[in-house]
User: What shape does this take?
Amino acid sequence: MSMYAVNTSIPKTLVKYIIKWVANNSKEECKDIINDILNTPISPELLPPDENGQIEQKTEEQVGPYLLHDFFLYHFLRYGAEPKKIYILACKTFEKDFEKEEIKHWLQVFIKRFFTQQFKRNCMPDGPKVGTVSLSPRGDLRMPSDASYSIWMNSLK
Assistant: This one.
């Protein structure tokens, strides 16, 4: 933790979009460096690279595509949508990109992680509110750390 959480309400897909915009609008000598950063898999862990110098932990392989997670988060927080509605919207939105069972799997992962990881948000430092909703426990999201996800998961069965 630090004294200020600069990306407290900025979705990872938006960060990638902004980096891509910067790369496309940068001087030629900067584009390769910025694109290299853009193409590096997102991983919060500081694990050493493998023997070939490759990143060992790729977060999206464990938690699912950020594209889906940001979609779930948006509809969950912005509109208070329940899992079944989020699932239906995601299936329609991503019908060419993901199978229905894959969407359901990652939605279940999202729900479980969203509720079980609240304790991390409860102790995070202050940060800006960039969009229409924020995960700040001192602003838009006032959820106890021990909130249960079981009702949400059961609604997907």
